[in-house]
Specification:
By secondary structure, the protein is of the alpha/beta class. It is built from 7 helices and 7 strands; from the N terminus they run βαβαβαβαβαβααβ. Strands 3-2-1-4-5-6-7 form a 7-stranded parallel sheet, sandwiched between helices. The relative contact order is 0.14. The protein binds 1,4-dihydronicotinamide adenine dinucleotide and beta-D-glucopyranose (BGC).
Length: 270
């Protein structure tokens, strides 16, 4: 069965990694609402993946659920194989899976460094690499998509804002920025578009522990000139535009969706 909705992603197939919660879940639902078939990758949260599936079905979309650790080569291969088996050609990869394991640098363990880099950076590399190989092996059908394939990395404002106490995380996102730009440069002649969306503070499980008290919320809001925390759906809609033909001339770009967090808010008063 395939998604029959005639939205701007009609007849396209998307893989969304880490789609059992938060931003990944919202992206999967937004792409399905615009007509794409979705492979919902999830790590361990099967209930979360099922929730994504019911939200996709509520917008008359269609998906498969594929369990797998995005930091493991064999799991990435299985994700792409199962997607191809279910839907045929692949058009979109959203590399979203990501984790934080925070600690002061002086106390940071090799294990916490390794886990974050493995999921956030190696996972992004391995899934983008598999997507690119799929895109170049397929026949371009411009009636479906003008580009031969689209990759979106969900990076972070911390691909440019250094972040003490989270050196592993900020390093993974800083590296993702150069991964995105270099791959975009290399694959443009193949008509593959590669971009990043770099969110600021979005209300999801990843930053629950930064919103534990009113004081912490106040501190977070002080970093956001627009005066509110973002919603996962606001990232989902932007991804849907970025992978559509409306954005066909956009490649190698980073879209910061952050309520102004990257505008050096502490300089706001001169
Ligand atoms: P989240 O914790 O809800 O989502 C992370 C997802 O990644 C989860 O579904 C989790 O199961 C999955 N995941 C973790 N390890 C995995 C693995 N090894 N293999 C496959 N999936 C795995 O948090 P959120 O916020 O939705 O995070 C999504 C992405 O957005 C991450 O890359 C994060 O760095 C990024 N981001 C989040 C921001 C925020 O304020 N919420 C801001 C900027 C970037
Ligand atoms: C982090 C969140 C944080 C946000 C803004 C994201 O990359 O994952 O924990 O709230 O950046 O600092």
């Amino acid at each position: 069965m395939k998604n029959n909705k005639k939205g701007k992603l009609h007849r396209q197939t998307a893989i969304v990694t880490g789609a059992s919660s938060g931003i990944g879940q919202a992206i999967a639902v937004a792409l399905a609402a615009d007509g794409a078939n979705i492979a919902v990758n999830y790590y361990s949260d099967e209930n979360g993946a099922k929730e994504t599936q019911s939200q996709i079905e509520a917008v008359n979309g269609h998906c498969i659920l594929v369990n797998g650790d995005i930091g493991k080569q064999q799991d990435v291969k299985r994700l792409f194989d199962q997607t191809k088996e279910a839907f045929g050609d692949l058009h979109i990869l959203v590399s979203n899976a990501g984790i934080q394991k925070d600690s002061p640098f002086l106390e940071m363990s090799y294990e916490d460094w390794d886990a974050v880099i493995k999921t956030n950076l190696y996972g992004a590399f391995m899934s983008a690499n598999a997507a690119a190989k799929a895109f170049v092996s397929q026949k371009l059908d411009e009636a479906i998509s003008k580009a031969a394939g689209k990759i979106v990395f969900i990076s972070s404002v911390h691909d440019r804002i250094p972040w003490s106490g989270r050196v592993n995380y900020a390093t993974s996102k800083g590296a993702t920025k150069m991964l995105m730009q270099s791959v975009a440069q290399e694959l443009a002649p193949h008509k593959i578009r590669v971009n990043s969306i770099s969110p600021g503070a979005i209300k999801t499980p990843i930053n629950e522990d930064q919103r534990d008290s009113e004081e912490e919320v106040k501190q977070m809001l002080a970093k956001i000139p627009y005066g509110r925390i973002g919603k996962p759906e606001e990232i989902g809609k932007a991804v849907s535009w970025l992978v559509s033909d409306e954005a066909d001339y956009v490649t190698g770009a980073t879209l910061y969706i952050d309520g102004g967090m990257t505008l050096y808010p502490s300089f706001g008063e001169g």
